Structures are given as structure tokens and as C-alpha cells.
Amino acid sequence: MKRIEGGVTAPKGFLAAGLNAGIKNSDKKDMAMIYSQVPCRGAGVFTTNVVKAAPVKWDKLAVDTSDYVQAVVVNSGIANACTGEEGYGCCVAMASEAGRQLDLPTQAVLVASTGVIGKQLPMDKITAGIGLLAQALGEDREHSRLAAEAIMTTDTRSKEVAVETEIGGRTVTVGGMCKGSGMIHPNMATMLCFVTTDAAISHEMLQKALSGDVEDTFNMISVDGDTSTNDSVLLMANGMAENPEITAPGPGYENFCAALHEVMVELSKKIAGDGEGCTCLFEVTVTGARTKSDARILSKSVICSSLTKAAVFGHDANWGRILCALGYSGVDFDPGQVDIWFESSAGRLKIVENGVDTGYSEEKATEILSQEEVRAVCDMKQGEESATAWGCDLTYDYVRINGDYRS
């Protein structure tokens, strides 16, 4: 497997477009489209928030019941959440218009929205935008970039990745793009992710691969502890790599899962590292846990600690906050056995051994915590399981951004 330049248009047969349709009343791009030249198997994982946006309801129905999917149309600026029957009708109308423009059945079009909750979509602008997107579709690198830019809200940068692997003697490509900066605390079943692949794989195995992978990727990130009404990860596979179809576990399925995982991890880290107002990506790895579940719970407890996130922002090695966050996670352990390290490009420093201060250098700790990517490693000394979670520091700018998000 190797990393390649690209995003959703990297796999064979996928086209994309992104443009300004005037939804945001600015010059920023606000609509995107992904289209496959042939029908796709589709899979999806969605928010567990009881308050679900209209596109989440539509996409779940389409993924579960449609014979195939072939396109996604996305708008940013308005979430189409808490919009009642009118909002759901707008969602269906988006799928219908995209289907008309692309000569597809309505149920073959997935829909996604992100932005302010509670506002109705300006369907005149949406409809016109869909027509322009259909005409602007292309398969080169620039089209992928434009689509990734068009789904951004408070993101400071677009997020894309692509990899190649070999399955059955054929080169298979997986590409993806995502958006997310605030209201990020997925419990997947305002974060959107779209993954494309030219792998030939059954619907059942595609859904199995996606559902399994989110447990160690998008379910392990947090910016602010808020699970969005719109969280969705959509995966489309068009089979154009012409590998032997993956219909059961085996080497081909394992290779596909490894490539998917590489894409999902990188996109997860890009979201966490672009948290609203943040200055660094904060990664927490828990080792030596009794069970995988324990490791996930412990690492995410630390990544979600506001006090720990604030300490990272201040470049303060306040390790007591980490141990405290481990302690209230609900996982039972002996605090007197825990070791903790801080790591970054500036080095590695053991700050806690068997639950007590090591007498470390505060100056070195500050240097380590002053980098753009910071990692804490916690060894629980209870077993063999481990897990990693990703988040960011908590800054003054987070409050500023969210204090006037609508205005």
C-alpha cells in the first residue's frame, strides 16, 4: 500500500466538482458533487444523535434499500437539521434534481448538508447549483480539490487523502475527503466524510469494513464533545479496478480494510488537528489496558478533558489532569502503576512513573508541548490492549468562533 496524491477522484471512474451557489452569501464555495461513471455499492455510518438532519434520514434509507448509488450532492452553510417535513422535502428535491441532471433514479443520489441548524435551504440557489455542478464535473486533481473546499464551514483547510493497494493482482485505489472543525464528537454509529473506491466488493462486506473501521478512527476523535446532527461517513465502491469481487473475509478483504483504514485515520487526524481555534493536534495513546474497550474509553476520556486540552494549549505539562481524566473514565485500574510520557518532534519525556512525578525538566516538557503535533502515552500496566484517540488543544479562539457562529 502506498499514499498517493489525490482525493475522491483518485479511484477510477469518479468525478467531482465544487463551486459557489450563493448559499453563504459570500464568495466561498458552498456546493459539491461526487459522481461515478458506473453504479456503486454504497455503505454509510451515521450520527447516533436522536436529533438527525434530513440528509441523514435520506442517506440511511438509500444505503439500506437502494439497488445502487451513483452520486452525492452536498451543500455547506445550512445543515437542513430541525427543519421538519419541509426540510426533508428539500432533501428529496436535491436528490431528485441531481438525478434528473445526471440521468439517475432519485434513490441513487445521496445528499449531505452542513452548517447552521434550523434554517431552511434556499432551493432556488440549490437547484441552480446542482445544474452547474453537473456541468462542471471532472476527474482531475483540481476537481477533487474544489469539491473538498466546497464542503468546508469553519474549517481552515480542506482535507483529502488517497492510497493505492493491490488486490487479486489489480491496483485498487481508495480516496476520501472530509470536513469538520467544530461540533465534533462522533459516536458513529457538522462532521462529513466521503470515501470513494474502485474496488469490486459486495454491499455486505463494504458495510462491514466501514462499520468496523469507524470504531478506531472517527469514533476516536473529539474537538468539543458535541455530537452533530449531521455526522455521516459515506463510502461508494464502483468496481472499476476489476479485482476479483470481495464477498467474504480473506486476503483481498484484509488488503481493502487496511487501505480504508489508512484513509480513515488520516482524515480523522485532519479533522482533529483543525479543531476550531486550535494550535495543535493532540494525540493520546493508551497501552497496557485489559481490553480494547477499556483502552478506547481511557484514551478518549483524556482527549475530551477540557482541563487537559487547556494545559496543552498553555504548553503546561500538568499531568495530574491526565491521570484525573483516566480516573473518571469508568475503567478500573491502579493509579500507582500508571506511567505517562509526552512526545513530539522535539523529543520524548517520561513525566510519570508508577503514578508519581519523575522529576522531569519543565523546560523540556514545555518544548515538547510547543509543537504542532503533541502526543501523550499512558501505560496502564494491566494487559496487552491499546487504542489511540485524537483531539486538539482548547484555545481562546474556540469561544470566539462559537460565540458569533451565526452572526
From TrEMBL:
<keyword id="KW-0963">Cytoplasm</keyword>
<feature type="binding site">
    <location>
        <position position="407"/>
    </location>
    <ligand>
        <name>substrate</name>
    </ligand>
</feature>
<keyword id="KW-0808">Transferase</keyword>
<comment type="function">
    <text>Catalyzes two activities which are involved in the cyclic version of arginine biosynthesis: the synthesis of N-acetylglutamate from glutamate and acetyl-CoA as the acetyl donor, and of ornithine by transacetylation between N(2)-acetylornithine and glutamate.</text>
</comment>
<feature type="binding site">
    <location>
        <position position="153"/>
    </location>
    <ligand>
        <name>substrate</name>
    </ligand>
</feature>
<dbReference type="InterPro" id="IPR002813">
    <property type="entry name" value="Arg_biosynth_ArgJ"/>
</dbReference>
<keyword id="KW-0055">Arginine biosynthesis</keyword>
<comment type="pathway">
    <text>Amino-acid biosynthesis; L-arginine biosynthesis; N(2)-acetyl-L-ornithine from L-glutamate: step 1/4.</text>
</comment>
<feature type="site" description="Involved in the stabilization of negative charge on the oxyanion by the formation of the oxyanion hole">
    <location>
        <position position="114"/>
    </location>
</feature>
<dbReference type="GO" id="GO:0005737">
    <property type="term" value="C:cytoplasm"/>
</dbReference>
<feature type="binding site">
    <location>
        <position position="276"/>
    </location>
    <ligand>
        <name>substrate</name>
    </ligand>
</feature>
<keyword id="KW-0068">Autocatalytic cleavage</keyword>
<dbReference type="InterPro" id="IPR016117">
    <property type="entry name" value="ArgJ-like_dom_sf"/>
</dbReference>
<dbReference type="GO" id="GO:0006526">
    <property type="term" value="P:L-arginine biosynthetic process"/>
</dbReference>
<dbReference type="InterPro" id="IPR042195">
    <property type="entry name" value="ArgJ_beta_C"/>
</dbReference>
<feature type="binding site">
    <location>
        <position position="190"/>
    </location>
    <ligand>
        <name>substrate</name>
    </ligand>
</feature>
<dbReference type="GO" id="GO:0006592">
    <property type="term" value="P:ornithine biosynthetic process"/>
</dbReference>
<keyword id="KW-0012">Acyltransferase</keyword>
<feature type="binding site">
    <location>
        <position position="402"/>
    </location>
    <ligand>
        <name>substrate</name>
    </ligand>
</feature>
<feature type="binding site">
    <location>
        <position position="179"/>
    </location>
    <ligand>
        <name>substrate</name>
    </ligand>
</feature>
<comment type="similarity">
    <text>Belongs to the ArgJ family.</text>
</comment>
<protein>
    <recommendedName>
        <fullName>Arginine biosynthesis bifunctional protein ArgJ</fullName>
        <ecNumber>2.3.1.35</ecNumber>
        <ecNumber>2.3.1.1</ecNumber>
    </recommendedName>
</protein>
<keyword id="KW-0511">Multifunctional enzyme</keyword>
<dbReference type="GO" id="GO:0004042">
    <property type="term" value="F:L-glutamate N-acetyltransferase activity"/>
</dbReference>
<keyword id="KW-0028">Amino-acid biosynthesis</keyword>
<dbReference type="GO" id="GO:0004358">
    <property type="term" value="F:L-glutamate N-acetyltransferase activity, acting on acetyl-L-ornithine as donor"/>
</dbReference>
<dbReference type="Pfam" id="PF01960">
    <property type="entry name" value="ArgJ"/>
</dbReference>
<comment type="subunit">
    <text>Heterotetramer of two alpha and two beta chains.</text>
</comment>
<feature type="active site" description="Nucleophile">
    <location>
        <position position="190"/>
    </location>
</feature>
<comment type="pathway">
    <text>Amino-acid biosynthesis; L-arginine biosynthesis; L-ornithine and N-acetyl-L-glutamate from L-glutamate and N(2)-acetyl-L-ornithine (cyclic): step 1/1.</text>
</comment>
<feature type="site" description="Cleavage; by autolysis">
    <location>
        <begin position="189"/>
        <end position="190"/>
    </location>
</feature>
<feature type="site" description="Involved in the stabilization of negative charge on the oxyanion by the formation of the oxyanion hole">
    <location>
        <position position="115"/>
    </location>
</feature>
